[in-house]
Amino acid sequence: MRLTMSSVMISPAPPVELAGPGWAVAVPLLVLPALLLCPPDQRLLSVLAAAFVCLLAQCFLPRARFRANHYFSPVNVALVLLHIKILVVPIVLMTCGYENKIMALTASTRSIEGAILIDTIAYLAFCLGLQFAPSGPVKPGRFSLLPALSQTPSSAYIVAFAALGLVGLFLTFGSIGRFIQYFSDPASIVDPQAGASWGEFFGTVLRPFFAFSLVTWWSRVTDRSQETGDTWRPVVTGLAAVVGITIANLTFGFNRGAVVFPLVSLIAVYSARIRRIPPVLTLAAVVCFVPVLLAVGSFRGKSQLAQVAPNASRDIEVSTSELTESILVYCGGPQLTAVFYESLDWGDRLWGGTTLVSSVMSPIPILGKGFRDTSGPVVYNHAIYGVSGIDDQIPAYVAELFGNFHVAGVVAGFVALSLLLAMFESWLQAVKSTFGAFIIQYIAVWGALLSVWSVSVYVQILFYFLGPVYLYLAATQAGKLFRRSSPPAISFQTGAGIR
């Protein structure tokens, strides 16, 4: 089967519009009452310093402000997460406290204060990187992937991706009955503790192809609708794609990130390039969607608990304490990173880059096996739990940087992250197809998660979830090389002789 590309293209995204800094003036005014109202023994004064750093950055570093016309941009996602990390999480910690249910040790208040200050340094480094990141139109070089991403994929890609995705689903479940049973009791079908066979490996790497087939279908419809002026077909096909992507990606152990990030990327591309979704509607959707995500997490936890303790009960209803704990844990709260910093004697014992290399290599099958015992997640969880063999906590990128290179590593790492996201942002402005915009948005939003999560998570996504992207780019580049190497056609004219 020959895979070709359509020449249907849409116009690039509109220029970035920056929001004003006025909202940041209210940040210290909100933090101060929280400090005064919380119990004295839970006050974290460093959050007030973080609030003023936020205010100064928004006032004097304009390119570090939120993108007003693309509020799902990768830079916005990172900025939101960083603001939650340095402002919301400490306020929640002060107000609600944190019951130590998992850690072998409890960090002192002074250590938690120090962890907040390190997070604030990371935020400031990220803002400075954005301010001085290269700007202006992108000029694709000889080896640039932008020309390939600016083309609309042909329908052959939809068929190829769907077929590969169905193969992945078959390798994972084996039958339609087991697939249906999975959605009522996921732990009974897929055991996360079981050893992976080659069939399970290919089932994992091929399943994302099905979701990408739906994205490719929606992208083709959207690009063609831009030419015809049809405004409803992208919406209808988009809703169908959302349902299909949700079902397909829930097969990854009901992992919420596997579902959320492709959906956010699809909505972001639609809002930025097709028809802007009003901010109020977006906020309302987020408010409604968060309880659903928490309920999915509760359902997954209930299924896993039933496997190890059949008689135990777990309330699927999301309580305030569960929500608080989710915010503190998933955003890399300072009560966790402070314990890790204490285990390093606050930089007296550094890893010198070894755990970062191991974190990059460990998700890779076979090659990464020798790196897993020294990876960032293993070292981080050992510090938290005090024992080996437990790795359910995700270390923050900032903690890995500090544990290897102290504050200098934090600054360099977050400047690099800001430059990476700024580059993705410029590519989003230049790419001319919906499919290409989705790919860039999807990769970049996962990259923005480095503001609170580990580099090993990002590598895992790049390895296991982006097979369709790699196949698409390889096919387009191979087609380009084939066309270059093909000899020119020879035409013969009547009466012409060969001498």
Task: Give a written overview of the molecule.
The protein is 64% helix and 1% strand. With 499 residues, the protein is mainly alpha-helical. It has 2 domains: 22-137 and 319-346 and 395-433 and 444-451, no CATH class; 146-318 and 455-481, no CATH class. A two-stranded antiparallel sheet has the order 1-2. The longest helix is centred in the C-terminal third of the chain and has 34 residues, at 397-430. The radius of gyration is 25 Å and the shape is globular. The model is unreliable at 305-319 and 490-499 (pLDDT under 50).
What can be said about this structure in brief?
The chain is mainly alpha-helical and 499 residues long. Helix content is 64%, strand content 1%. Strands 1-2 form a two-stranded antiparallel ribbon.
